Automatic annotation (TrEMBL):
<dbReference type="InterPro" id="IPR007867">
    <property type="entry name" value="GMC_OxRtase_C"/>
</dbReference>
<feature type="binding site">
    <location>
        <position position="225"/>
    </location>
    <ligand>
        <name>FAD</name>
    </ligand>
</feature>
<keyword id="KW-0274">FAD</keyword>
<protein>
    <submittedName>
        <fullName>Choline dehydrogenase</fullName>
    </submittedName>
</protein>
<dbReference type="Pfam" id="PF05199">
    <property type="entry name" value="GMC_oxred_C"/>
</dbReference>
<feature type="domain" description="Glucose-methanol-choline oxidoreductase C-terminal">
    <location>
        <begin position="399"/>
        <end position="534"/>
    </location>
</feature>
<dbReference type="InterPro" id="IPR012132">
    <property type="entry name" value="GMC_OxRdtase"/>
</dbReference>
<feature type="binding site">
    <location>
        <position position="89"/>
    </location>
    <ligand>
        <name>FAD</name>
    </ligand>
</feature>
<dbReference type="GO" id="GO:0050660">
    <property type="term" value="F:flavin adenine dinucleotide binding"/>
</dbReference>
<dbReference type="GO" id="GO:0016614">
    <property type="term" value="F:oxidoreductase activity, acting on CH-OH group of donors"/>
</dbReference>
<keyword id="KW-0285">Flavoprotein</keyword>
<comment type="similarity">
    <text>Belongs to the GMC oxidoreductase family.</text>
</comment>
<feature type="domain" description="Glucose-methanol-choline oxidoreductase N-terminal">
    <location>
        <begin position="10"/>
        <end position="307"/>
    </location>
</feature>
<dbReference type="InterPro" id="IPR036188">
    <property type="entry name" value="FAD/NAD-bd_sf"/>
</dbReference>
<dbReference type="InterPro" id="IPR000172">
    <property type="entry name" value="GMC_OxRdtase_N"/>
</dbReference>
<dbReference type="Pfam" id="PF00732">
    <property type="entry name" value="GMC_oxred_N"/>
</dbReference>
């Protein structure tokens, strides 16, 4: 999907072909008079494991599809460093993520309006944008759209132990839910997923393949953007400098016709490009020998992520994927089921059953999310345990901890310094302790009693708040939702990188359109909200 000889001047240049970039490519090429360049550092998405849902296991930490970032050693995680997957392939992280369709809660968007002063970010307006690009399995209704590019499907897999956990959660006071996307997530049920007939749906299939048929779109893969080309006097973004096939090349933006450069490289990548271009905290840029174009101290700050606490319970008298997938015959049957039916374990998202709950009665709305799996393993990339077990991962969906990401050198090959700063606030540590106790309450419910659940991780020896916080640091890991590093905000907020229309402060013809724009993280998985932001950007850019 890489074009060759094309004009070097474009109306719009999009950096990053991920969840936002692919949608923008389709929306902005709808006007045939506008020339669009889409630049992606990764390769095409032809790798088979991208498209088989369970293939995320073979994409994460694989240079074919992942940047393979790591965090700094985290004090809140007892000195551990984590893998920090980000998609480096057409489709970006939509090619390697968990495929869960989640908008967040209405209150998330109320907070965005408060921070930005812009009613366009309200839940009511966001809901209309979601409906525009959605193709919902249940048809159009007050909450959902039909006929859009982004397919929302029911899962093609169920496990008896998941249904039993669901009943246990109901017994623990969490109501049943068949739709987590109506503005209040409180409930337990199966996640909706972004799949088509048992195959992963990434943003390449949903948006880019149609757009790529248009003559006004040029797609460059394996092209790493080094920096933005900015006039130091006018402070206008004139284009981009990128590296392809070992050669440094440039592409320019037709700013006389209101052209724009749109940075959609994600919460990590967009910071890297901005800082290499001289946009960021002046002291940090000067320490790396980068001339300062715009002193914006908020670039790379305000990093937020969901930390999942992976509790594992051994169970008896019922099978889980552990035993099925640990035998040659079981693996053969799993493969045959997917081959002929596109169902079963190979069709499954990383998490099947979800729940949103209150960690304590003091919370104004559901503040923790469960991702429940009929399997267990020591850590990602290792074999499943030999015994039957389930994993109940619980994460604080409104963390108050804030971290940062910054470049370590001007060289685009240098890895960034990613410091999420997990569990750095009293509030987050308290929610962690409450979450572990809530999970124990669910596992002690009558529905699960016949299966003798036994806490394998972190272990029943952790009881006091201090012990549970220590346990959270031992078992906590990212659920891959970094946001907020180029946040929107009001003009009087010195840490706001963007205005409410996603324009970089002090720089003309430049927007950031991806998860980094979120001032606060949404209450759930972040892929769909990122697409909603891209839908808003398309409206702003085209005037639609």
């Amino acid at each position: 999907m890489t074009s060759t000889a094309q004009p070097s001047v474009y109306d719009y240049i999009i950096i990053g072909a991920g969840s936002a970039g692919c949608m923008l490519a389709k929306r902005l090429t709808e006007n045939p008079s506008k020339r669009v360049l889409l630049i992606e550092a990764g390769k095409n998405d032809h790798y088979i494991w991208i498209h088989i849902p369970v293939g995320y296991l073979y994409c994460i930490d694989n240079p074919r599809a992942d940047w393979r970032f790591k965090t700094a050693n985290e004090q809140g995680l007892n000195g551990r460093s984590l893998l920090y997957p980000r998609g480096r392939v057409l489709g970006g992280s939509s090619s390697i993520n968990g495929m869960i369709y989640m908008r967040g809660q209405a209150s998330d968007y109320t907070s965005w309006v408060k921070v930005t002063g812009d009613e366009a970010w309200s839940w009511e307006h966001a809901l209309q944008r979601y409906k525009q690009f959605e193709d919902y399995h249940g048809g159009a209704n007050v909450w959902h759209g039909k006929g859009g590019e982004w397919t929302v499907s029911k899962q093609r897999l169920r496990w008896p132990i998941m249904d039993i956990f669901r009943q246990a959660a109901i017994e623990a006071g969490i109501p049943a839910s068949d739709d987590f996307n109506q503005g209040d997530n409180f409930g337990v049920g199966y996640f909706d997923v972004n799949q088509r007939k048992g195959w992963r749906l990434n943003t390449v299939k949903a948006f880019l393949r149609d757009a790529a048929q248009r003559p006004n779109l040029t797609v460059l893969t394996e092209a790493t953007v080094n920096k933005l080309l900015i006039d130091p006097v006018s402070k206008e973004c004139l284009g981009v400098q990128y590296i392809k096939n070992g050669k440094t090349q440039s592409a320019f933006c037709n700013i006389t016709q209101q052209g724009e450069v749109i940075l959609s490289a994600g919460a990590i990548g967009s910071v890297q490009v901005l800082e290499r271009s001289g946009i960021g905290a002046a002291a940090h840029l000067q320490s790396l020998g980068i001339p300062v174009i715009a002193d914006l101290p908020g670039v790379g700050e305000n990093l937020q992520d969901h930390l999942q606490l992976r509790m594992i319970y051994q169970v008896k008298g019922i099978s889980t994927l552990n035993t099925k997938a640990n035998s040659l015959f079981g693996k053969l049957m799993i493969a045959l089921e997917y081959l002929f039916k596109r169902s079963g374990p190979m069709s499954m998202a990383p998490s099947q059953l979800g729940a949103f709950a209150y960690s304590s009665p003091d919370q104004p709305s559901a503040n923790v999310e469960y991702h429940v799996q009929p399997l267990s393993l020591e850590k990602f990339g290792e074999d499943l345990h030999a015994f039957n077990a389930i994993t109940a991962s619980v994460c604080n969906i409104r963390p108050t901890s804030r971290g940062s990401v910054h470049i370590s050198a001007a060289d685009p090959k240098a890895p960034p310094v990613i410091a999420p700063n997990y569990l750095s606030t009293v509030e987050d540590r308290q929610v962690a302790a409450e979450s572990l106790r809530l999970t124990r309450k669910i596992m002690e419910s009558p529905a699960l009693k016949p299966y003798s659940p036994d806490e394998y991780k972190p272990g029943k020896q952790y009881q006091t708040d201090a012990e549970l916080i220590k346990a959270a640091g031992d078992i906590g890991t990212t659920i891959f939702h970094p946001v907020g590093t180029c946040k929107m905000g009001r003009a009087d907020d010195p840490m706001a990188v963007l205005d409410s229309e996603l324009r970089v402060r002090g720089i003309g013809h430049l927007r950031v359109v991806d998860a980094s724009a979120m001032p606060t993280i949404t209450s759930g998985n972040t892929a769909a909200p990122t697409m909603m932001i891209a839908q808003r950007a398309a409206e702003l850019i085209t005037g639609a």
